[in-house]
Amino acid sequence: FDYEFQKGQIVTGKVVSYETGGAFIDIGAKSPAFLPTEEASLRGIADVSAIVPLDEEREFLIIRDQDADGQLTLSLRQFELRKAWDALSEMQDGKQSLQVRVTGTNKGGVTVDARGLRGFIPRSHLNERDDLEALKGTTLTVTVLELDRERGKLVLSNRLAARSAAISQLEIGQLVEGKVASLKPFGAF
């Protein structure tokens, strides 16, 4: 048994019992740790057993140090949030695209669900800019424009994802149609 546990540490454990308001998890500590219902999932749930079945081993994040009884408080929600931010950060670094679902609109653009995180796509970065209400519930391909984990800010672009997808379809020697945008002494755009 490892009794050296700290807030922010990731631990592995199994559900040993359910209680009103959460579940007790055996992580090899002096006493079982507690997973509150509100910390069991990114999306609000009423039944912890639907997310963490008995005897299923999972990873959890310690969010509160031991209390007077030696009990730790765990979170799956914050663990999943950490993984989602990490994955989106990697996608931004690798200039990869992802699928998001449009959840709402405002005058500046649309809000989306990106791996459980709330993201925003400005109107100027949407392919369809006119009828934002029609986008609700649809799935868009986007790339990450701006990511600030500390401020919880996630700005995405549908237009840049479409452009990079179109460019990736081009091959050397392929004949394409285009329109001259401007002429310069060194060539044409």
Structure write-up:
- The chain is mostly beta strands.
- The chain has helices spanning 77-93, 158-168; strands at residues 10-19, 22-26, 33-36, 57-64, 73-75, 97-106, 109-114, 117-122, 139-148, 153-157, 183-184, 187-188.
- A hairpin with a 6-residue loop joins strand 2 (22-26) and strand 3 (33-36).
- The longest helix has 17 residues, at 77-93.
- The protein is elongated.
- The model has no long low-confidence stretch (mean pLDDT 87).
Radius of gyration: 23 Å
Low-confidence stretches: none
The outline comes out as elongated
How many beta strands in the DSSP annotation?
12
> How much strand?
35-45%
Strand order of the largest sheet: 3-2-1-4-5
Q: What quaternary form is this?
A: single chain
Structure class: mainly beta
Secondary-structure element order, N to C: EEEEEHEEEEEHEE
Per DSSP, the total helix count is 2
**Distance N terminus to C terminus?**
67 Å
State mean pLDDT (0 to 100 scale). Answer: 87
Helix content estimate = 10-25%
Largest sheet: 5 strands, antiparallel
Helix-strand layout with pairing:
Elements: E1 10-19, E2 22-26, E3 33-36, E4 57-64, E5 73-75, H1 77-93, E6 97-106, E7 109-114, E8 117-122, E9 139-148, E10 153-157, H2 158-168, E11 183-184, E12 187-188
Antiparallel strand pairs: 1-2, 1-4, 2-3, 4-5, 6-7, 6-9, 7-8, 9-10, 11-12
Features of the shown structure:
189 residues; mainly beta; five-stranded antiparallel sheet; 2 helices; 12 strands
